[in-house]
Amino acid sequence: MKKPLLIVVIILAVILVLPIINLIRWTFQVKKPLEIVLLDKTVPSLDREKHKSFNWILTNDRFVKKEKRTSYSYRKDYYGFYPTRPLRDKLFDKNDYHLADLIDIAEKTDVLYFTDTYGVFFNDWYRSITKTRKSRKFYGGLNNNDNLLIKEMKDRNKLVLLEYNTFDYPTVEFEASKVQDRIGIKYSGWTGKYFSTLDSTIDEDFPIWMTAMYRKQYKRPWTFTKPGVVLLQEKSIIVLEEGTHLTKPLPYIITDSAGCGKYNLAQSVTFDQWFDIIDPMENSVISKFRLETTSLGDSLLEDNNLENEFPAVIQDPVGKRTFYFSGDFTYKNIPYWSSRFKGIDNLKGLLYSKKPDDTRRFFWLYYKPLIKGILNEYYSSLSPK
User: Fold this and answer.
1) How far is Cα 255 from Cα 348, in angstroms, rounded to an integer?
2) What is the rounded distance in angstroms from the CA atom of residue 225 to the CA atom of residue 19?
3) Residue 29 CA to chain centroid, in angstroms?
């Protein structure tokens, strides 16, 4: 066989054999039984984008259900909103826990994760409708049962993970206040998001209600065209545009050496989803958001009692088993088939690039190792059953 042809055959063999080897390696990994309750009220599509990436990590690292020792299904194993097929018929089911079930759930459950309590609204469900900031709610918002389940889990020193929008609209103020007191933080009322372009005439999905809100507040037209970050409060809006207010348009998540070492996190990754701004109070801050602002951007933030750095991940300093993520961390539509291959994240060149502004780096270099680290640390601390 000629040498060039032999090389081609060897390369093809490696390409075909490696996935099989990695699938076998994944199959024979030791299973880690852990009872997990996942709540996702924001599921307007069949893809379950708001929690699929978390389930990817569970599957890839072999966390399984305690009773059946089977992998968790991102399609079925969660509480919340369930769109049904065919999606065009706009039918849905709901899977809720009830007050009478809370004690039993808390006793049996090891981990509670609220990935999204926002819910599904008329404008999300019927996408052809012109979007407004707020529309009629079909389902959503953190309620009293959710609050009580958090309490019961914390009382038992179980692992509790909460994420962006746990206490924002449409959660009523009373319930929002209770959950903030329960985890020891204070919500500023400000949320924000990066936009690859602020030009509403180019991006058809740009929330047009933001431009109307800006015109009403500042009495001048919306003239932004570059990438940037929009910050929102109930009746206030701040626009930070690249060049004028930002030296770099994407927010960064920055982690100190202690956090990087403990959870194997990248020191810096960009983040392009929604986030909220909180006061961590006595909680430990593992990572921070940073907006790369100019002096004009700093002044604009200062006028609204804001800073260009604020918490991204906090941890209860006493029990160390309650975490709050101040961003929409789970909103990544990762190809689920890849979760059954051990070592898949070694394909760095294919999964993400070395460019600092590649937002794919967030999942592989930050969220995945963070969740994996938290779960494995907790799993190791549990006494053998």
Assistant:
1) 21
2) 44
3) 27
The H-or-E segment that residue 369 falls in is helix 368-381
Instruction: Give the whole-angstrom CA distance, residue 324 versus residue 190.
Output: 16
Chain centroid to Cα 207, Å, comes to 20
Give, in order, the Cα–Cα distances in Å from 230 to each of 117, 124, 147, 236, 349: 22, 20, 30, 11, 31
Contact 290, 213 (CB under 8 A): no
**Segment 282-307, tens digit of pLDDT:** 999 999 999 999 999 999 999 999 99
Average confidence (pLDDT) over 223-235: 95
Over 70: is that where the pLDDT of 16 sits? no
pLDDT value at 47 more than 90: no
Q: CB burial class (10 A; 0-12, 13-18, 19+) of residue 218?
A: exposed
What percentage of the chain exceeds 90 in pLDDT? 69
DSSP 155-166: HTT-EEEEETTS
Cβ proximity of 105 and 37 under 8 Å: yes
Q: Where are the domains of the chain?
A: 1-29, 31-381
Q: Residue 305: is it exposed, middle or buried by C-beta count within 10 angstroms (0-12/13-18/19+)? A: exposed
Average pLDDT over residues 102-118: 96
User: Could you tell me which residue, 202 or 155, shows the higher pLDDT?
Assistant: 155
Angle between helix axes 173-183 and 144-155 (nearest 10 degrees) is 10
Mean of the per-residue pLDDT values of the chain: 90
Give the residues across from 230 on adjacent strands. 193, 239
Q: What angle do CA 299, 303, 305 make, to 5 degrees?
A: 110
- 40, 175, 345 from 114: Cα distances, Å: 6, 15, 26
Look up residue 275 and give its two tokens.
């986030």
Give the DSSP letter of residue 245: T
Q: Please count the other Cβ atoms lying within 10 Å of the Cβ belonging to residue 250.
A: 21
Four-CA torsion 208, 210, 212, 216, nearest 10 degrees: 180
34, 226, 356 from 201: Cα distances, Å = 48, 12, 28
